[in-house]
Every structure is written in C-alpha cells, then in structure tokens.
C-alpha cells in the first residue's frame, strides 16, 4: 500500500499550529526538517499522485475554513506537492502548478500527535478544530457556515446568520436561545443591508436606512461568531 504525504505551504506562524490541531490517526500533520506534511487515511486507497493531490486540496479547503474560525489571524495554507514513500524508504516528490480545485472533507475524533522525532502523544478529547470538522462531516449547514465566515465580509456574515436562522427555523429561536440579543441582531441586519452605512460592501444596493448607530465590522464579526459557537454547541 502506498504511503502518501502532502507537503503544506504557508507561513511558519500558521503551519506550526497544525500538529496540535490535527491529532487523529486518520488525519494529522507531521513536521520533518522544517517542512509540514499532511497525512490522511483517505489517501490509502488512492493509486496516483494526481488523485492524492485532488483529495488533499479538498481536505485543506475544509481545514482552512475551520482553522480560520479558531484562529482569527490565520492566513491559510495550501498544498505544495505530493510525496510517495516507497517500501524501501525511498521517496519520490511530485510538484504541480497551482490550480483552483475546492471541495469539502471529513476527519476523525481519535487523537494522536506525531512530532518530528517520532514521539506520539494521546489527548483526551478532540481539539475545537476537529470538533467543527466532525460536525461538518454530517452537517452541510455547518460546513457552509464555516466557509462563509472565512470570507470575512458583511455579505458573508449575513449569509452565516441566514444559515443559522434557516437551520433552527426562525429568527426568534436564535434570540430566545440567548445566542444574540434582539437589539444587537436588529442593528447588525440594518447595518449589513444599508448602502448608506457601508457603501458597496452592503448586502443591498437599494437605499435602506441605516440604524442610528451603525455597527462596526469587528462588532458584527463578534456577534456572528458568538451565534455560531452557540449553534455548534447546540448540535454537539
């Protein structure tokens, strides 16, 4: 059976977090001589570097969504080629011009951290990123919400609100559950939909009136993040 690794590309500040964020035998990251490699049981049944690369891009896209939600200043990672480890220990590396394949992926909740010196550590429960990935595995609404939250715009934050609202049935449920206040949600919606307040960043082109005190973006992001976390916890 081929042993496949996918090298990750990104800033070291981001890459060095991955071995602790992804800790399962089915999906983990190892560091070797300053390079970081993604390992996944999804690769085990694949026979070509092209297939492994396509699957890795799918996994990385979902990871970027989940990690961005966990780490605000995370800038994202990408694949940087595929390596196959032969039975005799030899390696072949396949490099590619960058493409634009995107998709969704799955992971497990079993926990193993593998470091560059071969040591393994077992944790007692999934990291937050793994928990969100596990939710995404069976719930497309969660995957979509994480995807839109990573886009980090007024329009994408409004889409996250709509996903949560549609999932629970109506806006009143969000408020009744205490995930947001009625006043805060109204101010968010009025600001997001007002071109007078936001210009071209607004959700609508029509001249909807802004609230008396338009909501700053950082406050809107915090409001939707809080609603998302509460929604996730309700599904656990």
Topology:
Elements: E1 3-9, H1 12-15, H2 18-21, E2 23-24, E3 27-32, E4 35-40, H3 49-70, E5 78-85, E6 91-94, E7 112-114, E8 120-122, H4 128-138, H5 140-151, H6 154-168, H7 171-176, H8 182-192, H9 195-198, H10 217-235
Antiparallel strand pairs: 1-4, 1-5, 2-3, 3-4, 5-6, 7-8
Helix pairs in contact: 3-4, 3-5, 4-5, 5-6, 6-10
Biggest sheet character: 6 strands, antiparallel
Radius of gyration: 20 Å
Helical coverage, percent range = 40-55%
Number of helices, counting only DSSP H or I runs of 4 residues or more: 10
How many structural domains? 2
What's the overall geometry? Answer: elongated
Describe this structure in words.
The chain is an alpha+beta fold. The protein folds into two domains: 134 residues, no CATH class; 97 residues, no CATH class. The protein has ten helices and eight strands. A hairpin with a 5-residue loop joins β7 and β8. α3 crosses α4, α3 packs across α5 and α6 runs parallel beside α10. The protein is elongated, with a radius of gyration of 20 Å. About 11% of the residues have low confidence.
Observed structural traits:
two-stranded antiparallel sheet; 17% strand; 236 residues; alpha+beta; single chain; 10 helices
